UniProtKB/TrEMBL annotation:
<dbReference type="GO" id="GO:0006605">
    <property type="term" value="P:protein targeting"/>
</dbReference>
<dbReference type="InterPro" id="IPR022813">
    <property type="entry name" value="SecD/SecF_arch_bac"/>
</dbReference>
<feature type="transmembrane region" description="Helical">
    <location>
        <begin position="152"/>
        <end position="180"/>
    </location>
</feature>
<dbReference type="InterPro" id="IPR005665">
    <property type="entry name" value="SecF_bac"/>
</dbReference>
<dbReference type="InterPro" id="IPR022646">
    <property type="entry name" value="SecD/SecF_CS"/>
</dbReference>
<feature type="transmembrane region" description="Helical">
    <location>
        <begin position="261"/>
        <end position="288"/>
    </location>
</feature>
<dbReference type="InterPro" id="IPR022645">
    <property type="entry name" value="SecD/SecF_bac"/>
</dbReference>
<dbReference type="InterPro" id="IPR048634">
    <property type="entry name" value="SecD_SecF_C"/>
</dbReference>
<keyword id="KW-0653">Protein transport</keyword>
<dbReference type="Pfam" id="PF02355">
    <property type="entry name" value="SecD_SecF_C"/>
</dbReference>
<dbReference type="GO" id="GO:0005886">
    <property type="term" value="C:plasma membrane"/>
</dbReference>
<dbReference type="GO" id="GO:0043952">
    <property type="term" value="P:protein transport by the Sec complex"/>
</dbReference>
<comment type="subunit">
    <text>Forms a complex with SecD. Part of the essential Sec protein translocation apparatus which comprises SecA, SecYEG and auxiliary proteins SecDF. Other proteins may also be involved.</text>
</comment>
<keyword id="KW-1003">Cell membrane</keyword>
<feature type="transmembrane region" description="Helical">
    <location>
        <begin position="126"/>
        <end position="145"/>
    </location>
</feature>
<feature type="domain" description="Protein export membrane protein SecD/SecF C-terminal">
    <location>
        <begin position="96"/>
        <end position="290"/>
    </location>
</feature>
<dbReference type="Pfam" id="PF07549">
    <property type="entry name" value="Sec_GG"/>
</dbReference>
Amino acid sequence: MLDLVGKRYYWFLLSLIVIIPGLVSLAVHGLRLSIDFTGGTLWEIQLSRPVQPGDVRQVLAQNGIDDAIVQTADNNVVLIRMRELKEGSPEKEKLTQALRASFGDITELRLESVGPTLGTAIRNRAITAVALTTVGILLYIAWAFRNTNNPFLYGIAAIIAMLHDVAVVLGVFSILGWLRGVEVDALFVTALLTVIGFSVHDTIVVFDRIRENLARRAAPTFEQIVNYSLVQTLVRSINTSLTVVLTLLALYLLGGETIRTFVLALLIGIVSGTYSSIFNASQIVVVWENRELHRLFARLRRQHAPA
């Protein structure tokens, strides 16, 4: 039988290796926020020929838009993020004429404007939603596992695994924002909440199998019971996640530009959620039940105690 629990510190180390670079990037660079959070205008246009983002920025700068963010996509599509630009305003007409003079025919695909007040409201509601979700998960799991010795331990372990997945997604997008200019928008928050739900669902499936095997004493020790439960659920968890990942991969490769960030966040989160449910959440329960942290702290106290 696979000894997944016996290698638990290797799994923890792998998680740290993945998370730490993202946390450093978050601390230094943060997330690159879209106009959904900062306020401004997203202008999506299609040109008659391929162009470089720098050429578009130069035309915008010549017409008074100095801080625009320009990205190119397939089919000569250009995404321009800038300060608020109203539909039908003289400034918009001036920019349209300048772009047409430089690059030929222009087809407007989208023009969305968000004020800074609305952007702040979206950000605050997103933080509130994640906080309420976390509290709800803790209470639900504590109630569902109320017949175990330490029901809140299962809830805390599930939340740690969930925060692991959120940290992975946030860290990756912070790095992508720093290196590639990828922005997070309101759909990104939806993706995060979806990842949280998937992570907790997968963790509960594993915990439920542990509870069943504890009730019938499927192995002599708690550590062996957890390992036996993980082996039982391993194939099912991987197969379930793989079907979702393949679907999302097809959406990412073949879907439109507007949902690509959303799909990428789901892809990263679901892969991370599958990993954390098997290799983090259950292992945390084992570490606590074996009092390994207590012994570690006791050893450290003895080493630093005066002679």
